[in-house]
Amino acid sequence: MASWSRQRPESPGGFQPHLSRTLFLLLLLAASAWGVTLSPKDCQVFRSDHGSSISCQPPAKIPSYLPADTVHLAVEFFNLTLLPPNLLQGTSKLQELHLSSNRLESLSPEFLRPVPQLRVLDLTRNSLTGLPPGLFQASATLDTLVLKENQLEVLEASWLHGLKALRHLDLSGNCLRKLRPGLLANFTLLRTLDLAENQLETLPPDFLQGPLQLERLHLEGNKLQELGKDLLVPQPDLRYLFLNGNKLARVAAGAFHGLRQLGMLDLSNNSLASVPEGLWTSLGQPNRDMRDGFDISSNPWICDQNLSDLYRWLQAQKDKMFSQNDTRCAGPEAVKGQMLLAVAESQ
């Protein structure tokens, strides 16, 4: 590893490309253990035959140009409202771009055109309220887009045109109140969708039409009140479903029908007092699903005869149940405060 500035010539090093961002940062931290001294005014650089990986954080200065072989670039914690206009010029081999923890308010429509091989774009913790249409017209290879913790109140489909290979989309921690119908229609390869910690109260009926093999769906920390019977139908291979921390009071009887591979379900911290008979029928089949467990804790369960279907299901699945001690009855008075599982086993 070496420091890099405009005056420093390129030299070979030992970085291997495609390392995860976590491993990349660990290697940076290990520099001191290797006896490498870095100038605080320079960005940190790993070099290899495959290209350069560069990390710039204050007090380093953002360079006016980058090596042509740059494959990984991190420019973080600078509190920038705008990026240098030619930051990516001459870096056509760039594959990962991390711009987290700045104060970016907008991006130019032409910003990503110099980097057609980009696979990862991380814009976590900025101040974006929108994206310019056309931003991703040259981003056919982008498979990971992280817009976590910005200030998005709406999300327009036109902002995302051009993302043909998108597999991971993180929109968590924004201010989204509703989603446009057909938003995901062209994202056939999408595997992970994270909409946690927004302000969503409802979802369009066709919300999940488009992806062919969605595996992870994060909807926790919103204001959803109802889960309809058709919402999840387009995603029979869904493996992880997070609905915790909403205001769910109603779940349709057929909401989970057809989920052939569901391994994790989190319904904790909602407003569920009862659920319809048949809700659990398709879940927890032997050697097939619910392998990673489920959580229905911190709901105001009314433990009467209307939960008989749930009682039977819990007894068969109790070894997969998280937070058993926090899953208690809110009524009737005779069982108030008792563990729901204990009540189920007494029936």
Describe this structure in words.
With 347 residues, this protein is mainly beta. 7% of the residues lie in helices and 16% in strands. It has 3 helices and 17 strands. The strands form 3 sheets. The chain has a 13-stranded mixed β-sheet, with no helix packed on it. It has a two-stranded parallel sheet with strand order 11-13. Strands 16-17 form a two-stranded parallel ribbon. Strand 2 and strand 3 form a beta hairpin. Helix 2 packs across helix 3. It starts with a strand and ends with a helix. The N terminus is likely disordered.
Summarize the structure.
The chain has 3 helices and 17 strands.
Question: Helix and strand layout, with pairings?
Answer:
Layout: E1 2-4, H1 21-29, E2 43-48, E3 51-56, E4 70-75, E5 96-98, E6 120-122, E7 144-146, E8 168-170, E9 192-194, E10 216-218, E11 226-227, E12 240-242, E13 250-251, E14 264-266, E15 293-295, E16 301-302, H2 308-317, E17 329-331, H3 340-346
Parallel strand pairs: 3-4, 4-5, 5-6, 6-7, 7-8, 8-9, 9-10, 10-12, 11-13, 12-14, 14-15, 16-17
Antiparallel strand pairs: 1-2, 2-3
Helix pairs in contact: 2-3
